[in-house]
């Protein structure tokens, strides 16, 4: 009995609540308090909102090429440094002493050589042979660069990115295809190193190591071109790639291989000429050349006993300690630039509208919404980066003005403007009703009746508004949430 009474009370309360709710709705309708809105004329803006991080525009980690004991730490963490300033030094007293001795021996050998008749002719001949050898190294780099960038990169998509891909899905040699894609990245790094090497060559500074490295680079490029040749020979004509195009790929690859082989032979030829030039000279000339080589060797060792800043910036990490023994390749100091940029990863579903030059509004978690910054998109990676199983694209933005408030590592909230239409006629999208591919709204007339009007829609913004191209006037009172009010 008690349970029955409780059930009846529950049913009564439920009905009462329903009646009250209905009364409120009816009252709202009866009093004409239906929410309406008029068309607003403003800019239609679409944005992409993502999180990002502040990073230095440039950042370098430095370590010694040789082992040794640290004797000086010239810059501590937080110190401002300029290009070429010393950061850390190894104990180099022994090397300096050996260099002084070698320079003295070179001077003595040159004095003895000057006493010989015709010594200038011999030195000129050797100098010319050195110039020819150096030019052959430069020519080899130029030829290799042409072989990669101009003759074989045409078969790749995004060849200079970190994810190059052969623009041809040949069904055979799948392992070869994957190997070529990986090695194209390696070849790009190799060419950068080789370019740095050849731009610093001179008859005074070059060493046997420069020649050896150039030969190694040629060997790697020749091997890469050999794989490219195997690949293009496996290409077959299809609806996208014609036989004429395939023939061009093959001819260009053959030409690239021949050119690289030729410059490799030229280096050998010039080396032999220099060797002959030295062997044809008196013993004293050979002594001078040997003394020069010794001096260059000690100078090279001395230069590698000091870490110099390659950029203008601030020391961000310094682990070197006086008396510490360091090994080759161990990072002991890092430098970052004073200029900062933003880095973010945008999912593929949003990247389509983002382009270089787009403006962005930035807030930093460190300042909440108290400080706003402006930035522009400066770089978009051509290849995707997989993050948490999702394809994303790394995007970099440059600040328009940081006002000295930005620090490396700060978390940023980024809103990139990807579309803007000036003076568009907008209403909230929730006012639109779509039936049978037809869009319409309800408007309230002077008698408080709701009338249906067909409208033509345009663009949508990022705030839930939609553009009205036709069907409404500025005087119309459009019903919001028409389905709930109808």
Automatic annotation (TrEMBL):
Compartment(s): Cell envelope
Q: Is Coiled coil tagged as a keyword?
A: yes
Lineage top rank: taxon? Bacteria
Could you state one GO cellular component term attached to this entry? Answer: cell envelope
The cross-references to InterPro entries, in alphabetical order and at most eight, read:
RND_pump_MFP, UPF0194_transport
Keyword tags? Coiled coil
Major localization listed first in the record, in broad terms: other
The GO terms describing molecular function are: transmembrane transporter activity
Q: Transmembrane segments in this chain: where?
A: none
Q: Coiled-coil ranges per the record?
A: 87-119
Give the matching NCBIfam families: RND_mfp (TIGR01730)
> What family name appears in the similarity comment?
Belongs to the membrane fusion protein (MFP) (TC 8.A.1) family.
Q: What is this protein called?
A: RND efflux pump membrane fusion protein barrel-sandwich domain-containing protein
Species annotation? Candidatus Zambryskibacteria bacterium RIFCSPLOWO2_02_FULL_39_14
